[in-house]
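We keep the chain:
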Amino acid sequence: MPRLSKKTLILSCAALVVALIVIIFLLRGKKSSEYVAPTPSVTIAKPTISSVEQSITISGYVEAKAMIPVVPFVSGTITDYPVKAGDYVEKDTILAKIDDAPYRQQFLQAEAAYTGYKSTYERIENLFKSGATTQQNYDSAKAQFDAAKAQYDLAKLQMDYTLVKAPVSGTVLIADQAVGSIGTTTQPLTVLADINDLVVRLKVPEKYFDLFLIKRDQIKIKVIRPGIKGMYEDAVTSATIENIAPYISPESKNFQVVCHLETPGDRFKPGMFIKVETIYDTFENIPVMPVTTQKLDKSCYIYFEDTNTVKYIDMKEAASDGKNFVVPNEYANCFFVTDGQNSVFDGQKVRVIE
């Protein structure tokens, strides 16, 4: 490899120094530029006049106010079962018959004993009144007669109990027995209820206890049975508070509120799932804005036309019904940022999009 001469090496170094000087001058002569963020765009709107109802929505189930299980007082084979679910029955209607053969035999035995002791008692009673027998004989005959009569009355009562009758008038909700099955004193033969007297038993969180107690008389209750889209609309009826439990369940931290359905109609039946909207505050003819105007922390921004800037406002305490929130009167005529509020900050200039 040929060696560079000293002269060539000096010239190369000089050329490199000149190049570096030129680059430095070029860099010094270039003007630096700063990044300027674009002005954020927003849409604005003024509040409208409307109404807001503050409410709590709780799910529950429709119940008959009184559901009466009909349990037979004697056990045996069911020989007749004329009712079915959905039937309306009057009080004392026969709901089922239980085989009375064994109870009839007991009745005949008790009847024979009763007849015999009655005859003996009446004879000794006449003798006692005439002084022909002692007090002891009279007392013994009377005790035997009373015992026989009690057995006779019990046997007759058990015979009557083989006819299972409706204790009240109502609709048969459950009738899951059949002829040939065994009726027992531990299992209901049917369940009756007045389906026109319906209630909802709500389990309300503890934090609302004072609210329900203080505003009980002004609370409006709306019971909603959700409909099916394309088939039928929601069924809606009103209700009144019938009872507020005076204690909190330590397990669930809930308290019970019983609401009576005022006009349930045919769309509400026991066991149906419903939603109960309890309206505890109503604001009418006041300025409102959609809740979409608020950010996740419930804050929002108002817009000033003269400066094209926005101002941060905390609206955590504003009453809301889930669709709109109440605007304080001091902001009733202000422009609110309805879109773009998540990309601005307090005092920032913005560009309004019509």
The mean pLDDT is 90. The helical segments are 6-29, 101-129, 135-161, 209-214.
